[in-house]
Amino acid sequence: MKAFMDEDFLLETYVAKTLYHEYAKDMPIFDYHCHLSAKEIAENVSFSNMTEIWLNEDHYKWRALRSNGISEEYITGNQTDKAKFDKWAEMVPYLIGNPLYHWTHLELKRYFGITVPLNKETADGIWEQCNTVLRGKRFTAQELINRSNVKALCTTDDPLDDLRYHKQLQENDQFQVKVLPTFRPDDALNIEKESFSDFVGQLADVTGILIQSFDGLVDGLESRVEYFHQAGCRLSDHSLETEFYLEADADEINSIFKRRLSGQALTQADATKYKTAVLRALGTIYSEREWAMQLHIGGLRNNNTLKMEMLGPDKGFDSMGDFNYAEDLSRLLDSLEYSNSLPKTILYNLNPRDNYMLGSMIGNFQGERPGKIQFGPAWWFNDQRDGMEEQMKVLANVGLLSRFVGMLTDSRSLLSYTRHEYFRRILCNLIGNWVENGEYPEDYGTLGEIVKDICYNNIENYLAIESYETIG
Questions:
Q1: Superfamily for domain range 142-463
Q2: What is the distance between the terminal CA atoms of the chain, rounded to a whole angstrom?
Q3: Where are the domains of the chain?
Q4: 90 and 117 in contact (C-beta within 8 Å)?
Q5: Tens-place pLDDT, residues 247-301
Q6: CA distances to 26, 295, 343, 389 from 358, in Å
Q7: CA–CA dist 429, 269 (Å, integer)
């Protein structure tokens, strides 16, 4: 029987062990999609205890606690930080088969040197040991990022953000990690939401552009894209949760926009036509600046109305959607391709039934550069061993795994960088099994290059962020 989470954790073969330890392990990290706070990084915050850094704002852990019948007062409520930690520790042994069990112990091991399992009996000792370490100088936000071997990371940002903290970080000669913004204009797409008119007004105020027509809106968004570009941004992100492609002429789009600003109700078809026009306009703007466009498709958000009213959004009450969007996606990408304005694009699906659809879809629009259209890493509920393996197998079967841009954290926690280690072990084990089975030669020159590319080089080259050379 193998030891619990030893140095060869998840590595089943000699080839897998060689690929991980000699090629993957020490590659730097380019975390191109996360939800870290640029403000916290710029201010180099420190943390007084493990609940602050580990449990707050982690909806993965919150969902698990609720599934174990833990009262909300110990999750998002007013119980003490120690009481919340104790409830988490009591629950951890019940996480067998859940990636949270592995993530928890990787984080304890890599950042705090703790190798004993977390449970009710070990909770007090681990709490004290971790908190003692957290009080040291090496556990500020910037030091944690440095210790994790991160070379660049991309936050997720509102188009109206002044990006002051990103700029502050760029001027900090003592912190060499690139912290770059990502343009996330969901408020501009979601015309059906009550907040839409307010967003348009704020966009007009920030840009100084009079926005009374759809063309004015596009001008305002392009102004913000350029502002983000000057701050180092090279990619956007969009959350698509319903139908998003239905064509209409310019006059109809302008009419829909004006009717919404005047307070009139819109049909679902109106909203879809509008979103189509925005996505096509922004896609062209991104292409002109050689940005990458991320499309996260298939979330079903805020399912629990009672908890939404009590706690607000993003508290762990989202799940997989199941709407069909193959035709919408094809037509969107095709319309941009036809006008020679299709940007680099990374596609993410939340429902794994869509793996082969996306894996095959990207092949329709490749060209100009290796891996221009990407099947993004296993996202959210798929961010676990089976989900990662399935995503990579699909990509290998119908595309080029070797051109894959690899892993990201998609996290709000500074301790989540061990997820890159988790992914790299799974990647090396998958490739190692193919080699051990005689499906690919034991050619470490080629295999090592592929592994290093997926771990770091592919995404660095894909986004073409200046001043970072490919790691050999």
A1: Metal-dependent hydrolases (3.20.20.140)
A2: 36
A3: 46-139, 142-463
A4: no
A5: 999 999 999 999 999 999 999 999 999 999 999 999 999 999 999 999 999 999 9
A6: 31, 11, 17, 15
A7: 46
Say how many CA atoms lie within 13 Å of 64 toward its Cβ: 22
- Asked if domains 46-139 and 142-463 share a fold, the reply is no
Distances (CA, A) of 166 to 38, 180, 182, 228, 280: 6, 7, 11, 10, 28
DSSP 345: E
pLDDT at 154: 98
Q: Between the CA of residue 19 and those of 4, 427, 433, 447, 472, what are the distances in Å?
A: 21, 9, 11, 8, 15
What residue type is assigned to position 235 of the chain?
L
8 A C-beta contact, residue 214 and residue 203? no
Give which of 377, 354, 465 is closest to 424, Cα–Cα: 377
Length of the chain in residues, anyone? 472
Q: Which fold has domain 46-139?
A: uronate isomerase, domain 2, chain A (1.10.2020)
Token pair of 394 as six digits: 């699909």
Say if residues 406 and 346 touch (Cβ distance below 8 Å). no
